[in-house]
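Before the break, one more example. Copy the sequence into your notebook; we will annotate it together after we see the structure.
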Amino acid sequence: MSTIESIVQELEKIPEPMQLSILELIRSLKESTNTDDRHLSKSSPRILGLNHGAMKMSDDFDAPS
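Here is what the structure looks like once it is written out:
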C-alpha cells in the first residue's frame, strides 16, 4: 500500500470536520513551502566582513568570576 493510499484510508475513518481541518493544514503547509522556496531563490549571496569591527570582545571574557 502506498503512502497516499494509507493517508486516504485513515482520513476515511475520521469525521468530516476533522478532514476539513486536515485539508486546511495541507494547504497551509503547501503555501508555506512555496513561500520558502520563492524566498530562497530570490535571496542574495551572503557577503562576509560587512560588520567587521561592529563588536568588540572583552579581553577578559573567559576569566574566572
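DSSP finds two helices and no strands in the chain. Residues 1-31 form one domain. Try to locate both features in your own notes.
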